[in-house]
Amino acid sequence: MKRTVPWSEPVDLISSDDSSSDTDMEVNNGGHGHRSSLTVSINPPAKEMIPEDVLIKRAEMYQEYMKAIPIPSHRGSVIPFSSWMGLGRSIKKLYGQPLHYLTNILLKQWDELRVGSEDEHMPLDFVIHPCKAEASIWLAEEIHRRTSSHHHVARLWLSDPMHHAFVDPIFPQL
């Protein structure tokens, strides 16, 4: 393969995109004193803006879906855990069902409450009995499934661009 431009001549590379967010970089070609200018257009992915009415409808569907899932009545397992979110993940796997968005947020907050405490590095199942911890999560889950307003959930989702990180994947899309 033959090179069409000699190595000693500078080469300008320009992107064909006419974006206003161009980035200029100087490239040194091995210390020979010749510099090439490289212009690259960087287009960040557009942030998905979901209209409020669509988000309210999604929250309504989500809340109705979560209400339809029964809370397990036979819970006899002792699940070892070191954090509230870890216990939540184990519960999801063991019972094969999602936890409510608000329960996931609550578990995250409970983990954050431990930061700086004297037992922060101790596994949580040494501090709180696993059966009591699991019962606490199911109680919060029942409250969130049965009594939460979809308008409240939608407002929380609107204020948190990363809300989808706390919505378990079993969620119908519009």
Automatic annotation (TrEMBL):
InterPro entries, per database record: RDM1_plant, RDM1_sf
Name under which the protein is recorded: Protein RDM1
GO biological process: gene silencing by siRNA-directed DNA methylation
Species in which this protein is naturally found: Rhizophora mucronata (Asiatic mangrove)
Segments for region (Disordered): 1-40
One Pfam short name: RdDM_RDM1
One GO cellular component, as annotated: RNA polymerase V complex
Top-level taxon: Eukaryota
Classification lineage: Eukaryota, Viridiplantae, Streptophyta, Embryophyta, Tracheophyta
